[in-house]
Design a protein that fits this description.
Blueprint (H helix, E strand, L loop, with lengths): L7 H26 L24 E2 H16 L7 H16 L10 E2 L5 E3 L2 E2 H16 L4 H17 L11 E2 L15 E3 H18 L2 H17 L11 E3 L4 E2 L24 E2 H18 L7 H15 L10 E2 L10 E2 H18 L2 H18 L10 E2 L5 E3 L10 H20 L1
Antiparallel strand pairs: 1-2, 2-3, 4-5, 6-7, 7-8, 9-10, 11-12, 12-13
């Protein structure tokens, strides 16, 4: 760990600003507005003013992410003790309505009352079916979280493991048989899903210290590092055939990314996501720390991911991080989506702690200042979904089928923890 090239005053100013914002605006918005007090679980659709839109469909991913967010906030000392019981009722709703008692695993979407609308087994949701209950257990929630984290792990290992090529299938039917190929995704694998599997298994291993969970975590780390990063640039490749041959990335019928256009040409093969690269880097360090591994063997891969984002992803004029672009040149998509900003805050502070270089602090601060000026609805507390390069709001809703508290609250909680470590060293 390096001594950061940043002053104590700079760090303290950002720490105080973020801490006040999290405690008085961001977390209270979700505590006060998200719980469905009639049917249980969480309501997730909010307009630009923080008001319910009237849409009440409950997606697995948002229910899980609310359980995770509230549990993690409680575990880290936020929410004045209110968060854990709100997470508990959310997990109880999931177990009652979204768990498949016949085949195991979690259904993809339900209506407000919990009646299933889509019974698919999408691995993004199955991963978080480990991650969120494990976090609830780690936060002191008791056996319900541990039980369903373990049940989710067992269902994934039995139903989604690719025993021929390694890794995990991603788009599956209720009985865990693959969906058709092409836009239904039955013949593809992605970095995104395997990164979140690493995240989920890190939390599960933190909870159990089971050698099987350790082995599965190490397996998915090896796949990410040896099969899913470009061998020269070190950047993440988005999609693959089942044998890990890189493919041009297509949009799937089953989505979890708000309102993106799901038609049109595939993304070029020479393309990478700045947000996913930075998120992968800090999650990889967390996994190594949880495993008790020395960080040095991971540093070359981590540094390449951070340096590419600093060089090509950070907007030096307006601040913030772009969506994506080639691995060897300037960004192609200059829009700025909420979740990339969130992951960049955490990642660049991790880079400051690891390497000490001033450029990482500059990247963090440019991203935070852009968010503070343009991305946060200060009257309500939550972030807008999508901005133009100059900060013009393009998608103004605060909550959606796939946008919830997870990235925004987690970014504040994790950034504050890292700012405190930086302040201790400065």
């Amino acid at each position: 760990m390096a001594k950061p090239d940043v002053s104590a005053n700079e760090i303290a100013a950002r720490l105080d600003q973020m801490d006040a914002y999290l405690k008085t605006k961001l977390l209270p918005f979700w505590i006060e507005n998200s719980v469905d007090r009639q049917y249980g679980g969480f309501l997730t659709y909010f307009d630009r003013n923080g008001k319910p839109t009237g849409e009440t469909t409950k997606t697995l991913l948002c229910q899980e992410r609310m359980v995770y967010t509230l549990s993690h906030a409680h575990r880290c000392g936020y929410g004045d003790g209110r968060c854990l019981e709100l997470a508990r009722q959310g997990l109880e709703f999931m177990v009652e309505h979204l768990w498949d008692p016949e085949h195991g695993g979690w259904f993809w979407t339900a209506d407000r009352q919990g009646r299933i609308l889509d019974d698919s087994k999408i691995m993004y949701g199955q991963n978080f079916g480990i991650y969120a209950p494990a976090e609830f257990a780690l936060a002191g929630g008791g056996d319900l979280g541990r039980d369903y984290a373990l049940k989710s792990f067992a269902a994934i290992q039995a139903g989604a493991t690719d025993t021929l090529h390694g890794g995990y299938y991603e788009m599956l039917k209720r009985d865990w048989s693959p969906k058709p190929p092409g836009p239904y995704g039955g013949d593809r694998k992605s970095l995104d899903i395997h990164m979140h599997m690493m995240e989920a298994l890190t939390n599960l291993y933190d909870l159990t210290h089971n050698p099987l969970h350790e082995r599965k975590l190490r397996d998915v780390i090896a796949i990410l590092l040896t099969r899913m990063l470009h061998p020269v640039s070190g950047c993440g490749i988005a999609q693959f055939a089942l044998d890990f041959t890189p493919l041009e990335a297509i949009m799937f019928k089953a989505v979890w990314g708000s309102d993106r256009d799901h038609a049109g040409k595939p993304r070029p093969l020479n393309n990478t996501s700045f947000g996913h690269n930075v998120e992968l880097a800090w999650l990889l360090k967390w996994a190594a720390d949880t495993l008790g591994d020395p960080i040095e063997p991971y540093l070359p891969a981590i540094r390449k991911l951070y340096d590419h984002a600093v060089t090509y992803g950070i907007d030096p004029e307006h601040g913030g991080v772009y969506v994506e672009g080639p691995m060897d040149g300037p960004a192609r998509d200059l829009q700025k989506e909420f979740w990339q900003q969130a992951e960049t805050l955490v990642g660049m502070l991790d880079a400051c702690l690891l390497f000490g270089d001033r450029k990482y602090w500059t990247a963090f601060d440019l991203t935070w200042q852009f968010l503070w000026r343009h991305g946060i609805n200060h009257d309500v507390g939550e972030w807008y979904a999508l901005l133009a390069r100059d900060g013009t709001v393009l998608w103004d809703y605060l909550g959606h089928a796939w946008k919830i508290s997870y990235h925004t609250v987690r970014a504040m909680v994790e950034s504050l923890a890292r700012l405190r470590l930086l302040l201790d060293r400065a």
